[in-house]
TrEMBL record:
Gene3D superfamilies: Toll/interleukin-1 receptor homology (TIR) domain
PROSITE patterns, alphabetized: TIR (PS50104)
The protein's name in its UniProt record: TIR domain-containing protein
GO biological process, one term: signal transduction
Length: 235
């Protein structure tokens, strides 16, 4: 698995972003999933298949919000039916959500899509979240996000105890790009003094930080932060 992989991306018509997509993304993030939204928004003239394929290259699962706005883009039937072509091997990768649209209406556009088990927003977004989590857990996430080996105040004494080769992330963020002020691989004991000076210079000393033993765990945590940053930008 490469480091650009997310748990889910959400493909949706731009008209459904405020009412459905952003609130659902917040619920999924709060449940511990990483969510990719950047390329999920679909506009008239886009290639639906290309959008879905691009999302699935970066994500394990694709959530598609089917609505009147979605179908108003006049997708070719071949593109609609092709959404589920990746499931031919038996692995579920597309999670359909119906928003203010019923079975008969969807069937007119694509009987194949109408025949797929879906969850409706009429049951509330918390119910949608629960169904999405259930579907994902049934298949199994390809990545589990490990807990940090240290989560506490960044002090000089603590820095001296961090394992060499572990990854330090401060809980203080840049006002420019919202990234952590410190994202460093912990070096040898001789290098810790410089790391402490860096912490003091950016105001991270004495503040909350997290340390991850493995690079994979560090990257998984950063993807979670990226999802939150992305969501705040869209709100």
């Amino acid at each position: 698995m490469n480091e650009t992989t997310w748990d889910v991306f959400i493909s949706h018509a731009s008209e459904d972003k405020e009412e459905v997509v952003l609130p659902l993304a917040e619920l999924l993030l709060a449940s511990g999933l990483t969510v990719w939204l950047d390329k999920g928004e679909i506009f008239l003239g886009d290639s639906l298949r290309e959008k879905i394929d691009e999302g699935l290259e970066r994500s394990q699962f694709g959530i598609v919000v089917f609505s009147h706005s979605f179908f108003s883009k006049n997708w070719p039937k071949s593109e609609l039916d092709g959404l589920f072509s990746r499931e031919m091997g038996g692995e579920k990768v597309i999670l359909p959500i119906w928003h203010e649209i019923g079975f008969e209406e969807i069937k007119r556009y694509s009987p194949l899509i109408a025949g797929k088990l879906a969850v409706s927003t009429s049951n509330g977004l918390n119910a949608v979240k629960s169904q999405v989590l259930s579907a994902i857990h049934k298949v199994g996430r390809k990545e589990s996000i490990a807990k940090p080996i240290y989560s506490g105040n960044l002090t000089k004494k603590a820095i001296m105890t961090f394992p060499e080769g572990s990854y330090l992330i401060s809980n203080c963020y840049s006002s420019y790009d919202k990234r952590p002020l410190i994202e460093e691989k912990v070096g040898s004991l001789e290098d810790r003094e410089a790391l402490w000076e860096q912490a003091k210079s950016c105001g991270s000393n004495g503040r909350l930080c997290r340390v991850f033993k493995r690079y994979e765990d560090y990257r998984a945590h950063m993807r979670m932060l990226d999802s939150l940053i992305q969501l705040k930008r869209l709100n």
